[in-house]
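hiii so my PI (J.) wants the whole complex modelled not just the main chain, which honestly fair. so below is everything: two entries, each one labled with what it is. i double checked the lines twice but i was tired so who knows lol
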Amino acid sequence: MAFIEIRNLFKRFKNVVAVNHIELEVNKGEMLTLLGPSGCGKTTTLRCIAGLEKPEEGDIVIDSKPMLSEGFVHPSKRGIGMVFQNYAVWPHMKVYKNIVYGLRLQRLSKKSVKERALEVLELVGLKGLEERYPAQLSGGQQQRVALARALVRNPKVLLLDEPLSNLDAKLREKMRFEIKSLVRRMGITAVYVTHDQAEAMVISDRIAVMNSGRVVQVGTPEDIYGRPANRFVADFIGTMNFLAGEVVRVLQDDAHAVYVRTEFGETMLCRTPHSMATTPGEKVYASIRPEDVEVFAAPPQSRENLVRGTIVHKAYLGNFLFIFVSVNGNLIRVQVPHHLPQEEGQELYLVLDPQKCMILS
Amino acid sequence: MTRGNILLATLLWSVIAFLVVYPLSILVVESFKIAETGTWGISNYLEFFEDAYYLKIFGNTLVLSTLVLLSTTIFGVPLSYILARYRHWGKTVFTALILLPIVLPAYAGVFAFIIFFGKYGTVNLLLMEMGLIKTPINLIYGLHGLVCIQTLHMLPFIALSLSAGFTNIDPSFEEAAEVEGASGFWRFFTVTLPLCTPSYLAGAVIVFLWPFTDWLTPLILGQVDYLPSIAYINIAYHFTDMHRKYMGIVAVVVSSAVCIILFLLAKWWVERKKYTGLSKGTTSEGRVIEPGPLIKVGSYVYMVCIAILVLLIPVVLGLAAFSRRWVFEPFPTYWTLDNFRLILLETPLLIKNSFVFSGVALFFGIAFGLPAAYLIVRTRVPGKDALDFVITLMLAFPGMAVGVSYLLAFWQAIPLATHWVIMPLALFARRLPYFLRMAHSSYLQLDISLEEASEVSGAGKLRTFLNISLPLLLKGVLVGVVMFFIMAFQEISTAIFLYRGGWETLPIGIYLNWHRGMEFGIAAAMAFLMIVVTFILLLIISRIGGGVLKAAWGPGGT
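here's the output for the full assembly
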């Protein structure tokens, strides 16, 4: 049984439905990320787990104990640690007092409180700053205080609400790895909320993509990127080219391979990502990531999904080059190594890898 | 929404219903009473709006309001611009001095001005001694004096709101205007001033309503043909003529209605027109420039002039307080401590009453205000917005309306007016918004996640409040506490209707002793004492609140 179970959770604010009957499970020791655009309900879901919001319907079970159905369990009784987006480090308390606040509420000896606090301070790399006030700390250090405070009571569940969004880009990248290794080392079950897909890919064991109050897809980062469940997921995670089309024929020997008619040509060979069955005539989108398009100066010999186009635009991004190619008036984004000489206006041939080209509804 | 919150809301609402809604509705009901027949009807109102005399005083009040607003604006615009935009030495001191009248009681100003600018006051006597004039000039008795004194009293409200406006404008708006080719005056009138309209209006409405509230200044200057003064005379002096009493009540209701309506209109307009949301945040200082030498000298002269006028009040009252028989002399010649001996040793009752009543009112204020602020900011209990609304409305209600309504409401059915607790209760109801707004705004600034972090860490609601919320709210709450105390300490409009023998407070003592003519030394000493108390309290606020500016008005500007 999963460590955290979210059952049929429903929460609304006045007339706006924030969380619309979602089901979600988090396994013990796993880091699950709720990923989605702003307003998708990810933070509300997290706050429901924390007990900071009371949902109208549904139940949340943490470590086999229901938090709602057998009477509302107050946040202080849930055994959770939480890192807030703005850190919420109490400005009137020194670092040490901030960290031991929760410990002091437990019946512990002064000595063991101190031992535990120093241990956590060491863990997050704040040793020697115990006597500072939060105003004397940098943003990154305040973030560590918030993390230490959340971890000090050995919580069953760690909740992180966009903890890195207020840090600068370099520090954010560093903290991703630190948080991940820290949580993994301690073996805590963690739920992480972010709108940054790169952050989600790096930090999570599994990702739950949310959109307008619903969970759209749950899976490992590889699943989500390589086999997105629908157009929304494919578009939100990474970059995707979509070509509107219609299924022409399903291959007999491989039910997952279909021919689609798009504006690029009569027959594009695509794969269906999941066990979804398609029938000829269905309206779909043939989708391909920019890195899955091969570029040739001259037409290669007999390849599937070969089209001819003109470069209209190029963008140099350092480690690679983005080119925008016009094919029959449709723009397609292609990622190519930067050493390939590409000029705007140049004609070239594209092969849309049939193994990577998928159809999405 | 827990049961506890609903219980709290019910409790707070019953207090408001008993101390605000009930008495004020009694006031309105009484205004419909017809003296001759003892029945109810609208004839009082018909008479009020048909009688040439009442119409005239209504018009007078409107004219006075307009003139006061006009002159505060004319003097206030350059003043606030200087305070907000120019880098100059002694900014804090000047700001504090110019804002001082906010915390000084209005009657202190009138008394000081009569002593200094009166018919045989210091100025006239000096001018005659110098041979510049033969007979004294009428400097203050009349509309011009009224406008003058009320302008000085209300100038800080305009200065505060406008300078807040000037400070909060995103500098890039003005820079854009300058890049487009506008400079100096053109930029000021086309961009800066229009952007300030919402904050100007917030102050302007308070200024405009003051003549509908202030009964004492016209009365003392012998100008009774204004709405609040006539109301006071009708109710306080003509109680044997029931009809005149009811007409007085009608006058109170009419001026209250004007106050409420204008206040609400301004509030609605300001909230609709807030421009500050358009900008991406600004520096805390706003745009500060180094003025040229000529402008710098000019602005110093301007500020010093206003500061001298303000300082006249405590200085003149101080001179009068430490002297005896200061008449027909430009400055006192006979110095004595007699006045203080009289107040402090022989009749310390007034001082005791003032402290006790304000203190008890303050206790009620905290006991009510803190839970109310919590309820309004942190919960979603139905009716909490209405609670906020009703309490905010009390800002606009004339003090006299509260006093009269308490007298009517707590006389027969609920005979509370025979117990001294009516005094602090009335002070509490009247000055509540001052504390609540302060507690409210500090609660708004307290990020809710700080409290949530505590709950997640294992603390209950009460412990969270004591360990996290209260220490972080303390500064704002303390400023609110002191502000409330200052305002309750100098309250006269409400108390004058409710006090009985033995319940006199300092303001009432000042008023009564002034009436006794030659005893104005005692009145001045009392006023001086009150100013000293106010000063000490202000100093305390500036210590805790950081800055005299905040001390005078609290965080968050208007």
